[in-house]
Every structure is written in structure tokens, then in C-alpha cells.
Give the backbone structure.
Amino acid sequence: MSPRSSHRARMVGAVHLVEIVATALVLVAVGQAIGGHLEGFVVNPGWYWAMGVGGVVAAAAAGVAMGMSGRHARAEESALHPRILDVLYRRSLSAPPAPDEGGRVVTLVGDNAERVSEYRQVFYPDMIAALATPVIVCLGILVGLDWLTGLVLLVMCPVIPALIAGFLRLFRKRSSESRRERARLTARYLDAISNLVLIRMLGAGQRVEDDLRRRGETNRGTIMKLLAGNQVVIIVIDGLFSLLFIVMSAGMAMTRWQNGHISATAAIIIVLLSVLLLEPLHQVSAFFYIGMGGIASKKAISRWFEEAPRAVSAGGDGPTTGDGSGAIRLRDVTVGYGDSDILHGIDLAIPRGSRIAIVGRSGAGKSTLLGVMTGTLHPRTGKVVVDGLDADIAGVGAIRGVSASVNQRTWLFAGTIADNLAVANPHATAEQMWQALKRADVADDVASMPRGLDSDVGEQGCLLSGGQAQRISLARAFLSGRKILLLDEPTSHVDIDSEQRIIDAISRISADTTVVMVTHRRRLLDLASKVYRVADGTLVPVCADEVTREDLERAGSEDRA
């Protein structure tokens, strides 16, 4: 789970143990007071102080544990959300989404994250403390009051967790069925919401409504079966074992007192302390709802993390060709859609630290060529090597991991500017973010906003101008620290001032960074050390002054990829 999950759980568990020890002290003090009255001896005033102090400490510890567990659960849930979404992002780079992936992710970040957080930070520490309570009490009775009674009760303690484990196995199938039905219902609702317009156009609203109602009823039925079984188990266990432990401890204490083995005060204290032996039974009802659901959710989230593609650093970890001479190398590459080839026989070698511009009329295949370099598009034939990684060996995720892209249509996630920058580098500090914004010539714009880095960008960046959004996207690329920068029309859809600021930012990129620009703007050609033209599916080098008006004209439609 989250890195601090175990530490937080131990803190709550420790406070619970303080509460239990303080409660035991209060019961011992009460037993001393009652025993003194029955046996006619003067009770030490210290026991009355112990009763008061113990009660205050127990109450305070209970309140602190409740507050801590709630805060820790919310912190755990907040920490899980970005980790789950990070896996989704990395999976999207290496493979198309599975048919049910949307519903699965919604379930993971919603129901599963909440359940596992409650389980880890609320139920688990409380359960561990509850299971430790009988052991502590029995050892106290064994050492301080009566060794035989303490020993017998101590031997009986393992029965409760063994019984709980048995019922866990008994109800595992029913619990799994309930979770599957909830996941199916979530996926259906998500699919219906995503396609509301299409459903209405096809007149399928009633059919979808009936299907959702039927699945909702099935889900309700599985939940009610699970709850009904749980209630029966709770009644049987709580009634039977509460009676068993209380009667057994009281019976042994009274028998030992009557036989003269222990005093009346010791017998009273044993009877009072036996109430604490029931602590694990108080957790049984929570176990079947929070415990079983939390364990299952933990397994689901763990599987999601285990399925995550391996993260690839900017250093180029992964299978290599051993050829470190260039940043990008394409050999006899052919790319097509359907039966037609868009690019064929492409040979291109881009040295490290070079500035390359790619021009050509709209639809010629410039963005398709850039897609091959990013690993998004796999060629039909030929070899692609990016930063020493062979695309056929390393896989899409590895190729995407060594370059940073800025597309002509900037995508910003709903959230803050800091959130969007952190996509490229989750561990970046505020100072590093400001430095990246400064390099992209947008730091002054962000600084003028009331909340700075914490300013919301809105849905798809609607609260920013086109130029600001594009420059934040460029800053995000800088923040990634990758040494290959792929720019697809970086100055499109922006005003003249923003265009100049983007060009200035690109001109200041360090010499050790390789830049490949697809552009329709002649002003960007001045930054390029070499220019290539895409025409008729081929790639040919040209001089900057040989670039024609047709190469720079933008048609009404965008590139095909």
C-alpha cells in the first residue's frame, strides 16, 4: 500500500494498547475497592487514584485512536489514488486498454481504495490490539493473581482467531461473488454514462435502464445473502463465546477462592478482567464487513500494482542495441494504416544534441513519423532505435519512457498546475517546478495567479489561455529530465506573443538535449540544424531556404496520426 501505511497502523495499534492497559488498571482498582469492602481491610488510597487516572487515560486514548485512525485512513486513501492512476497511465503507454479496464479502475480508486484504507488504518490496528488483549490479561492473571486460572484462559485464547479464520473460509465464496457483482454493476453504470448521447440516439434508453435495474437487483441480492449469513455467525459466536468465557473465568475464580487458593479480592479482579477477554469477539461483526472486504480490496490493488509495466528512467534502462552513437535511428521503416502505406523506406539518423525540423504539407505523415519515434506507432517493417533502445525488444513503454512530447493540442488534467507538472516527475520539488516554468517562459504568468502552483487549470485547461497551456506542457516536458524532446506543432493554436515566447524557450534548450520539431512555422526552422521534408511517403533532407510555401501551409484537417 502507501509507504507510510504500516507506520501509521502501528501508531494507532500502540494507542489502542495504552487504552487497554489503562482499562485493565481501572478494573484492578475497582476489584481492590470491592475486595477491601468485603474482606474488611483498608484500601490503599493509591488504588482510587489509579482508578481515576486510568479512566482518564483510557478515555483519552480511545478518542485519540479514533481520531488518528480516521485521519490515517483518509491519508492512505489519498496516497493510493495517484499510485493507481500512475499504473493506468503506464499501462496506456504499453498496450490498449482492456474492455473492462474503465470499470476496474473506478472500482479500485473508489470502493477498493476506501475499503483497504479502512481495513489497514481502522480495523487492522484495532483487531491486533483486541487479539493481544486476552494474552495480556491472561498473563497478568497468571503472574499476579492465580496461575491455574490464567493458564487455562491463556490456552483458550487461540480458539477465537481460529474460529474467525474458519468462518472466513466458509464465507469467502459468497463475499467474492458479492464483490464481482459490484464490479460488474460499476462497469455497466460507467459504460452507460459514457455513452448517454449514443444510447439516446439509438432509442436504447429503456433497454439500458432495465439492464441496470436487473443487475442492481442481483447485486442487492448477493449483498443481502452475505449480510444474513454474517448476522447468524455474529449471534452464534458472540452469544456462545461470551457466555463460555465469562462463566468459565467466574466459575474458576469462585472455585479457587472457596478452596482457599486465592483471596476474594483476587477472585473479583479475575471476574472483572474477564470482560476484556471478549475484546476479539467485539471485532467479529466488523471483521465480516470491513475485514473481509478490506483483505479482498488489498489483494485487488496489489494485483493492479503487480501488473504495472516496469517504469523506465530517462537513462534508458532496458534492452539495448549496444549502439549509443545517436539519439534516434530509423532503418528502412514502413508505416501504414489498413492496406495503404503512409511512410515507406524511411532512413533517419538523429545525433544526440541536434535540432531537427520536419516539414511537409498537412496529411503527408509528419505526425505519423513522430508517432514512430515516440513508440506509439509500430512500423510494419524496419528497425527503430531510440536512445539505444530497440523498439522490437524494449517495448512501447520503454521507448515512451526515454522521450518527452509536446503535442499540438495540449492535454491538461483537471487539477492544479502542480498536479499537471507532477505527471512528468512525481518527486519534483516546488523549486524544480518553478525552474521548469521559468525555462518555458510561463513562470511569471503562474506567479501572478492568486494560488501560484496550486491554481486550478480547469477541465482540459479551460481556465488557462491556449498559450499558457502550451507553455505549461513544455514545462512539463522540461521537468521530466529526458534528453529527447519531440515537439508536434508546438506553436499551433496560440497567439503571436505566446508563439514568440515558445520559440524563445525552445531556443534556450541545452545543447545536450535532442529536439525534433514538426512544424508549419518558418520561424522555428531558424532553430534547426537540419530540415527534412515528408512527401509522397518518403523523407528527404532539404535546406531551410528550399522549404516551399506548400511545405508550410496548413490544410483544414490535422495529420492522420
